[in-house]
Write a structure and sequence with these properties.
The chain is an all-alpha fold and about 130 residues long. The protein has a domain of about 70 residues. It is elongated, with a radius of gyration of 35 Å.
Length: about 130
Amino acid sequence: MRNWMLGLWIVAIVSLQGCGAGGIAADLAEAVDLAPSVDLAPPAPDLVVGPTCGTILLCVVARCGFNDLACAQTCATGASSTEFSKAGALGLCAAQHCVNGSAPSPGPALFQCLQAHCAKELADCDGLSF
């Protein structure tokens, strides 16, 4: 009985050789890849741009003053880490070189101090309209 089953399998395989143009091997070689394709491209950058370094600092100076930290944090809401770091570097430099224990008045004296002592940080800070 076992030989009979083996013979039946051989006949079935040989008869399947006629399926398709090149037989069963050719049909399997032309198999379609059913795996889903994955898009490996990075996502497009968000078109909504947060505040720039200059926008953050102008907001802090004009709206918050130098002592209201909660207000200053709202000025930086939505800013990229790069812009936030630039604003922090310029603010720190200004605090070290241009503040004499009291809040400086935003005006020509502050800007001159920033140009004299914080030229690199000032140049890196986009969005300042001086």
